[in-house]
Amino acid sequence: MKKIMLVFGTRPEAIKMCPLVLELRGRTDMFETVVCVTGQHREMLDSVLETFNVVPDHDMSIMDSGQTLFDITAKVMAGMRRVLDVEKPDVVLVHGDTTTSFAAALACFYAGIRVGHVEAGLRTYNIDSPYPEEFNRQAVDIVSVLSFAPTEASRANLLREGKLAETIFVTGNTGIDALKTTVRADFSHHLLEWAAGSRLVVMTAHRHENLGEPMHRFFRAIRRVVDEFDDVKVIYSVHLNPVVGQAAESELGEHPRIRLISPPLDVIPFHNFLARAHLILTDSGGIQEEAPSLGKPVLVLRDTTERPEGIEAGTLKLVGTGEESVYDGFKLLLTDVVLYEKMSAASNPYGDGLASKRIADILAEKIR
Ligand code: UD1
Ligand code: UDP
Hints:
By secondary structure, this protein is an alpha/beta fold. Helices cover 48% and strands 16% of the residues.
């Protein structure tokens, strides 16, 4: 029996790792599956665990309000040392580019335990953007012995960096596995009733490098545009970081056509809101993957993206974080019908919803 331990700690990791947990736990003849959460996020993690019915075997409960990268790294390293000592897994799976993933992978490297990286090979090659995620994902890839790349482009990045071809597997993104289970034709919600008859804009923002002035700038731009279009309503699901909440309140609060939703929407309502949106404004990574398969245009509130597939598919457009560039980009997408139609074509660059199954098959074959 192979012991596989999955380690994750934030909302996006949980959304993308829970389908894999369920797949591995379903193969009881082959795997002993251990789930360890760091608790880098608390409420936002717990709501996903509850949605997918995943009960962790270990919970480091590390979150503090105002936590720094030092705090997260140090606490995860210490927690991992204890858990690895007890569990002695054959392989540890981490996801993506969070500091939980980086510190957990580093701990495994120190302990001589193999690491598998789910969502490997994404790159901007700009170490400052997104910060610190570009460092985190490159560091995880260095210590991984199995790389589960979502697309051919991410595989190509890894090959270029010297990873061995036989350790890289293109699987699709497990986030699409999750999306296939959450979006429902009969979903209803009072906020959707509020937005009925309007063009619904769904919005999120949280990136570290956008905290402070950049966020204030693009919030101001968004308010200016909404003021000009009576038929536009915005549902902004606000991240629990208090810095985000304060900026959102001060720039976007008390507007009759903007709803600030805090605590943020759980994954099932959120995915169903995306599916019914006219367009999406976000600096999120995961939403850039979900939108193409839903056929929803996204204006990405960033200067760089590690998701070129969505740009190629025509769904994503980088509008930066400048007040005028966001104002212009948002207004254009509301007025240019041809552009809107072009960006609304659904495509499937991130997979078919079977990524978890593929990863489990590969683990069954490769882990001895
Ligand atoms: C983290 C990840 C980022 C990922 C994002 C997803 C790092 C360095 N950053 O950033 O890559 O895109 O998660 O959302 O790994 N908070 C709560 N309750 C929660 C979650 C957060 O109160 O359930 C508050 C706390 O005050 C916390 C703050 O948000 O200190 C920031 O959380 P943190 O995980 O440090 O940063 P994120 O911006 O969420
Ligand atoms: N999400 C959610 N509720 C929200 C905002 C996002 O359930 O209010 C989901 C979203 O659909 C995606 C994931 O959370 O699956 C992305 O998380 P986030 O944007 O926090 O992190 P990132 O992907 O940028 O790391």
